[in-house]
Amino acid sequence: MALVRWAAALQRRWEAIDPAERAGFFAGVRAYMPSMPPVLAWGLVTGVAMSKSVLTIPQAIGMTIFVYAGSSQLAVLPLLAAGLPIWTALLTAFIVNVRFIIFSAGLMQHFGHLPFMRRVVLGVFNGDLPFVLFTQQYPSAAPQAGKEGYYWGMVLLSFVGWQVSSIVGIVAASLFPDAWGLALAGTLALIPVMVSTIRSRATLMAVAVAAVLALVAFKLPYRLSLVIAVTGAMAAGLAADEAAARLQWQRRRAAQAAADEDDA
């Protein structure tokens, strides 16, 4: 009976949402579906790694639910295994996830008008792929019906897929020998998704710079290579956009000058 009441309350809550936001939600789900295979693969890899570390199964499940950040989860496992102070793990997790400060700044222009706590919840569910796909769908900060629903459709699907695959990896870790190379499989699964997001020269420049910086800084501790690669990619993308805009302006100016000469 309690379940029925809960379902009825949830349905009323859903029906109270603006129809445009509901349509946006399903559009976000559909847009994110092609990205689910690599998300599931990485969730499985992360779950297996946590289960085979010093964490117990309940601890690993708690980490995947409450931390929900695969890169930092994998980064802190060696530190926990070495028995280092907890502040080192927290610092490492912060450094690895500092890119989300950049992502949050990018989302601020879209959701800055919302109440503070609502924006906090939006940020909690944010992820790398949802952020990239969302900003491609909505490059302009102009208000648009269904925008928040689209975001929620992607991030909730990503969250559920990650949790399910990660918990499966935690519980069934003994079924996945290290020789299977699951980490490599997860990385390879992400490559097609990354390539599909390259839709401009600026994005291509950002990806190339990120790849080079990640390789150059690979041996730095605390996965600082990830932070350096993300920061460099953002700077390269912004610089490429600025250069393209300036070149376009110069071409328009030259075309206008040529037109003025013809009129004269």
Q: What does it look like?
A:
78% of the residues lie in helices and 0% in strands. The protein has 264 residues and is mainly alpha-helical. It has two domains: 18-175, no CATH class; 198-264, no CATH class. Helix 3 (36-51) packs parallel to helix 10 (147-171) and helix 3 (36-51) runs antiparallel to helix 11. The longest helix is centred in the C-terminal third of the chain and has 40 residues, at 224-263. The termini are far apart.
Q: Using DSSP, what is the number of strands?
A: 0
Helix-residue proportion: over 70%
The structural class is mainly alpha
Q: Please work out how many helical segments DSSP would assign.
A: 13
- Give the mean pLDDT: 81
Query: What's the Cα radius of gyration?
Result: 22 Å
Sketch the topology as an H/E string, one letter per element.
HHHHHHHHHHHHH
Roughly how many Å apart are the termini? 84 Å
**How many domain regions?**
2
- Major sheet characteristics: none
Strand content: under 5%
General shape:
globular
Q: Low-confidence runs (pLDDT<50, min 5 residues)?
A: none
